[in-house]
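Section 5: illustrative case.
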């Protein structure tokens, strides 16, 4: 394929994805049509909840983004709980109770997760302190002329040649 058709194809795909002509990346690929709820309000709530739940197989994707069978099962559970009349916190609590806090993409801020939340701040703080100390250490030394002994030694060395 020559350059012109490749460039045209790339531009077409870029334009289509920007304009929304293509299905957006993310949850739209993973959620199957048979999972989608008929009630648009419930479906929106299900999408919002499942965007915050981790796929336990993929571990770095939400269940909305994952094609793993376990992610599908979790999406179905979320939708079943919503249809049963649970609130969003109740659905999240049910899934956490069943799979543990690791299923949350954003961990809770509590005493047992304090280290998890404070480690990035501590690392940034230590980096700033380290840079500050390094900048103080690298002050330019004052220009000093040669001592009389050094000048005499240089003169003696240059006279011998």
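Designed sequence:
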């Amino acid at each position: 394929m020559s350059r012109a058709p490749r460039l045209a194809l790339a531009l077409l795909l870029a334009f289509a994805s920007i304009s929304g002509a293509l299905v957006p990346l993310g949850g739209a690929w993973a959620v199957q049509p048979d999972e989608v709820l008929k009630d648009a309000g419930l479906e929106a709530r299900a999408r919002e909840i499942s965007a915050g739940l981790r796929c336990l197989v993929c571990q770095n994707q939400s269940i909305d983004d994952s094609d793993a069978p376990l992610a599908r099962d979790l999406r179905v559970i979320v939708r079943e709980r919503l249809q049963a009349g649970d609130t969003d916190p109740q659905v999240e609590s049910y899934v956490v109770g069943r799979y543990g806090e690791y299923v949350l993409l954003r961990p809770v801020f509590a005493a047992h997760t304090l280290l998890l939340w404070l480690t990035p701040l501590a690392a940034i703080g230590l980096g700033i302190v380290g840079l500050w100390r390094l900048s103080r250490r690298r002050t330019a030394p004052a220009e000093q002329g040669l001592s009389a002994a050094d000048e005499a030694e240089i003169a003696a060395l240059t006279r011998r040649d």
